[in-house]
Fold:
Amino acid sequence: MKDLKHLIYFESLLEDAHNELVRQAIDSGGLALGYTCYHMPEVLLNVDRCFSLRLRAPRTGSMDIATYYMSNYTCEFCRALLERAIEGGYNFLSALMAVDACAEMNRCAENIEVQKLVPNEKFFVTHIDIPYKVTDYTIRHYTTQVRVHVLDRLKEVYGVDVSDEALRKAVEEHNEVCRILTEIGQLRKADNPVITGYEYHILNLVSYCCPKALILPKLRETLEELRTREPDEKPRFRARVILVGSEVDDPDFTQLIEEAGALIVADRHCFGSFPGRQEILLNDEEDVLTQICRDYLVTSQCPRYMSQEKIDGRRQFAAQLAKEYKADGVIYEQIKFCDYWGFERPIASQIMHTEFGYPVLSVDRPYMSRSSGQLRTRMQAFVESLEIKKIQREREAEKA
Amino acid sequence: MKDNRPNNLGHLFNGKMAMKRREWRGFKDTAYDFGYWLLTWAQLSAMVMKMPIRFTKALFRYRWLASYLSTPAFIDRHTLGQRGTQLRITHMHFDSMVKATIKIVLTTFKADANLGESPKQKALSDKIVLFDEMMMLQIMAGFPNLIGIPYQLVPVFECSLMDQQSSIPYIDAIESYGLPSDTCPLPTTEAGVAIEDDYPRMGKCFIGSTMPCDGSVMSTQYQDRRLKLPSFAFSLPVRYDDPEVEKAAVEDVRACIRFIEEQTGEKYDWDAFFKTMKRFNRETEYEIEKWEVNKTPYPQMTGASMALYRMYTYQMNGGIDPYYVKLDEKVNKVMMRGYANKEKCCAEPRHRAIVWSCPAHYYSNFATWCENCWGINVLVDMESLNAVRPFNLESQEEALKDIAHYYERMTMRKHTNGGHPHVLEELWRVCAEFNADMVIMYQHIACKTMAGLNGLFEEQARERGIHLIWVEHDLMDPRTVSRREMRGKVNRYMQTIMREEPVDPTLVDFEDEKAW
Structure:
């Protein structure tokens, strides 16, 4: 396939959290709000002159100092963010919007707060409490948390307009990004898609890590380009997989999977598009904030939810994606030392295999996994096993 | 104390499962200690004799059950070197725990379908509400006709305290299933017991919880899947200091009560609840008195017995059994007598210490060793310092808030949840209050909530001039860090930093890898 026009530009934007577009937005008076989890409603961080920035620590090397503060037994993603903060990599932030959803990320945010790592006079860290199930009263609770600790704080500290009109405007912009990425995502259902998993991951990542208003024109253009893009004559991938798990903000990881021969057709992970890149549909009857908060709680696929319907729901969701996107197998991945995914991965892998009939590869991985030969070998072996299964199926069909 | 001062305690360990012989503590104390040892055996034997057939079946059915045979040795480990008041209090505390456990074991085995089904067994099983890891039972005070059982207490929690090897097969089983080896061994073992199908089969419904950490949230689904009972996710807010969260917490308590009512057909009895909580409030007052005495230069109960007993009264009993308040009264009398006589709690008290973070289950008597070997008196344990606000005894609305308040601040959860002030700044406050110069800082390596603050603890202790002795352990897996290695951490600190000589040199290094 012909290279996407803006792919190299998008890749360059992902090389630094403080990228060209972030600098541009700040120069024109924007407030950069860092966040780390789906449970901090992204759309609300794009209200008025604020813009959301899902924190990453690209090109992480040593994490020695963060390891001193958080031990070598904690999630590498959290440590990488802390290390980057200590290095001064987030000094441009106006606030860190943290959620108390997972203990390790909470401690990362607390270290940033207690050590006063961002030398911005008005910089603040806020924490919101996240429910473990979805009921009427937990939605009310979550909405209150967001109102008090996010919107009210932004208004108090920076005078941000958090009126219903401003929220609706932010939702409109968010929805446009979602429409574009959903339409691009739909192209992945084709037998010979015009977009690879790696390319989609890059597009999705820039939508999380750049100011929406500034990245939108390039996304629109890319969608146009994809509508007419010619696929390779013969698919170069040997199998189709969906990727499920914790944070994958490292495009090199998706590239590693695809280099092994598995095309990623759907991404159900933090930094993925399921959930996160679906439109938020608002009505005129109910309070806007409640509608937004409900949407985030209901759509979240995080393993921390412990009510039975959410537990069953997230497995069915993954199976549904695999079916819809015609996947041959499922890759469950987690960043090492993540407690939630550490427990979810083994049981979900078993269930996906025994109850839904999908071959599963279950891996834990370092934050930066590009150089992992072990991981590459496992991916290659998985692709081969999928191929063998496919051949066996075809032979059986021929016999029949 | 002068005539029968403990010495050469290290010679009691011979590298085998049990100690070489019992400790000689002088005639009076040895007789007292021996009397309780006999009593423990008598109670265990009586328990077996109450239903010998089901017990025999259980012994073959459940791998963990054999660990209970080491109960007397478990108590011996905690009384080592103790004399006078301290010895009496420890025995009274442990005896109450033995009694409570026996009660739970008997109920469990009577109701367990794995050991045989019958209408009687079914009727009892239908009265049981199972509670998840470390949950308190206060909510059951309003269901006097039902029985609340902490589900993992007998198969997981207590065994791991009594026998350091008990969790290992379950940890290996769940790791073979695919669980990474970096997760906390407590939820790991719980999930392992579920995978091995080693939980008793009983109960009408299950109350799962988020307490106290992410691992425990996640292991619940493994048990849920195996139990196949109607379950309720009791999930109180994490940031419990925030005034905005109270409404949701109360709603969740209300929903939990409603769930139990629907499942069992029982109605919540507020009169019974208030009556029980009156008793619980009294128990809390006694607990506070213990802390107050330990803040003085004459602490009367040091080591793990206070924390373990607190766990029983606060969590597993919650005022429901009137036995505890009577025992508290008795302990209080003994303690106040010792305090009035300015009795020393050990032969040579040198340092006043606080234990912070969760202690190793496989070495619950570590504080006893610290005292005997180095004269480090552990005055209080993080796990004891839970909620102490008295329950409102008149208003149902206020009582619901109190229930939420207590559950939010239960063992571990109070400190590890809701932000760093609850565990970091809280430690310095407790050190000042107890006039402590030293902290035994357990570094449970798989506890990510605590690990996330390692550096801040270290820096802030240094700023305050507090001796922070880091002692690594892996909670229920002694293969990662052995008891000997744990002792080595304290030994090295005391020898190189404090430049002190041990109180009992025979305890500095000895072999106990194969011991219970």
In short: The radius of gyration of chain B is 22 Å. Chain B has 20 helices and eight strands.
